[in-house]
Amino acid sequence: MIKLVGNNSLEKERILKLCKEVVSPNEIFASCFYGPGIYGYGDEESDINVMLVISRYPPKISTFSKQMNGVNLSILAIDKKVFESDVGHGEFGELVAEIITQPFQPWMKPKYLEKMELRMKKRFVLELLKNVILQYPELSMELLINPDYFMYEVMRRRARLFPPIMHNLVRVFRGKARKKNIDFIMKGYRKALRRLERENFVALSDGYVKINKKFIESTKVQSRKFSTIFNSIQKTLLSYIKGISSKILTAFLHGQMPLAENSLQKDEVELLKQLEETEKYLLMPTPLGPVPLSDKTDIKDFVLKTVPSRTVLKISIEEMGGVLNSIFLLHIKKNNTTKRVVVKKFEDWLGLKWFPLALWTLGTKSFAVLSTTRLKREYSINQFLRNKGFVVPRILYVSLKRRLIFEDFVEGEKISEIVKNIIISSPNENMGNSVEIIEKVGEELAKVHALDIALGDCKPENMLVTNDERFCFLDLEQATRNGNQPWDIAEFLYYSGHYILPTHSDKAAKKIASSFIEGYLRAGGKRENIKKAASAKYTKVFSIFTLPNIILSMASICRKMAEDDRNKQVARMKLDAPKDQLIFT
Question: Which range of residues forms the domain containing residue 361?
Fold first, then answer.
């Protein structure tokens, strides 16, 4: 980065004298240099660009051109309030404030200009964090953000809105000055991030930015009332309407040195490619290291990543079924050991695949349809539950672009098989162990619900008991925060009931329902969820494939046990209340 004036007082005096000719020197509040010389691609004949922040300037914004020793001096004068409004709120499309987001050399009031730079970059970071939360609502709690994301994403948006700026950005990011310019720009963003960490918006760790949970939740609440995604775009369009942008843009781009057309096009292509891939700075943690959202790893690439080079191995793939997704079991055999990895490819639920499911749950439950949405839910809820101590398949790798999740194969017995064993058992057969497992299902689900998580697809076949007798949730692609908890209960019970044939008695249904509910309530599950699961809103959904008497029997158990739990709680309150206090029920 070239210093235009440095300690050359004579040159400063000449520049100041020319500035006095266009604005009153007593009203110059702050100033800085920008342009080719500062960005590192200027020479002795390049224009000198100076911005003057004026205390009171009725024209608001003006541009002037003066000659100094055969070199053009381009002066941009702006009213202080207008400048601060553009910095703080993007009032004029941030085209003036754009100057201090790029490398600049302070001249007068450097601390003020640095303060303005920090304020603007802090606002940019907050706006981009909100956009990340709204774009990736499930992933946002798990994402690791490379700080470079903020610099490139701001530039990407600016270049899309104002294509002429692209020529300037290319020069800033080319040649020997590239590293110095990036360091200068990122210094301001890092200061902004440290400030936001102190204000509890983010946490900084190991070179990454992690969004705080409270900020995520408050942003989601705000998004229901206001849309902030296109906030900057709307402000920029407003500046066009005001007719200001042409003046600013002309001043900002004035005097830029021409480059050879072929060289410029090549650099533009490279920079555009980099700007269009800002997702590579948003990463998902995995055991194999953080994976960028732009990753395009396929099954073959995954094997190469996980197996050392030149290792002799045998690979085989078998289908594991899956109606709405493609699921494969990958066998990686090395020497005398075999590693099994489940590969889940998420398909979009469109047309005939989706319609029956939507029709089946109409008015009761909505399902995520898009493959990427379901993949994000599977990943984020899996990571969340795992961090809370629940047993879930360990996710080894994620490829969002390929819509693939690679996870450990978990051995064990499906809960659906245990349900079937209870159904077909004889009246005198001791099913104590199976009943205890169903109670455990209820307990684990209550613990999940206590974290404000609803599984969304709570069929017995999506759960299993591992070989070391731990309980494991398998399928989390419909899981959500603050979701429909009564649906989880209804689906587990009434879907279990569809295994009961007309030749079976309803004793198994009662045993399954009572065991599950007992475990759920014992672990602190809400009885309101049990009561709601017994309502017609939920029972009607499963009447298509579960016998009516089975549904009625299970719903009756739900209502009775919910009421019994209420009565027990009232009784406890009466016992615990002072003698002279009257309790009304």
Answer: 291-409
